[in-house]
Amino acid sequence: MSLSSSNFENILVMGKSGAGKQPRIDVFTTNFGLKQLSTGNIFRSFMKIFNDAAYEGDIDQFYDNKKNEFIPDNEIKRILGPSIDDSIIDDFILGLKAHYYVSNGLYVPDSLTNMLFESYFSRSDYKGMVLDGYPRTEAQAEYLLKLTAEKGTKIDAIVLVENEDDAIIKRTMGRRICPSCGAVFHLEFKPPKDGKFCRKCGAEVILRSDDTEEKLRMRLQEFRDKTMPTIRFLSEKGIPLVKTEGDLPVFTEEAVKKSVVDGLKKAGLL
Ligand SMILES: [Zn+2]
Asked: 219 alpha carbon to ligand 1 midpoint, in Å?
């Protein structure tokens, strides 16, 4: 069986935070010739364009607090004047908006997330991607289906990585990172030296600030409230849903690959 000849156009890998999405994404990038497109990376890249431009003005002036939205782009451009180069102005404005919401800890509106996503997705002609972290809401899913239909591409399947909350919490709370070199450990599965020191550089390992139980439970709740309805919506629109177990009895690259391939076969996609 030649996996790469199966020619998937786009795959969505979905699941709770900490369910084990990355090893499944790796199956598609390694065996099916797809590339990973992560919302986190998209946001970081646009915010970098904004930051690199070292704009010194006040960005609050572009936000209309009464209407609760940004003023129109042509107004923003007029105020910016020649301070930002024409060749990057559109990406700069997208980055400015992303920066505004993220740095103020505000919820990013779907309309902006959709625009950032589309701008990135267009660079690959809307195909050849494993989407990670998008769509996260029904409005985003609707946008994605409309976009792929318009561009003549499609979403072949949703691969849902299933894992129980308790298992996720247990695994995530055991995770430790090295603040000095970035190495990742796990108290149970890959313990640091003497339970607390990095095996590479010797620094004392720490719990990531995003890995507190409170923050994790919030992410799990958000999955139930927003992502599950999104998956149902896509499934009702005819996108095949492939369920895979997040925890495997033996967790090797081969075992993960087999579980994904078996799921795709069962859904008639291979
Ligand atoms: Zn280290």
From this structure: 28
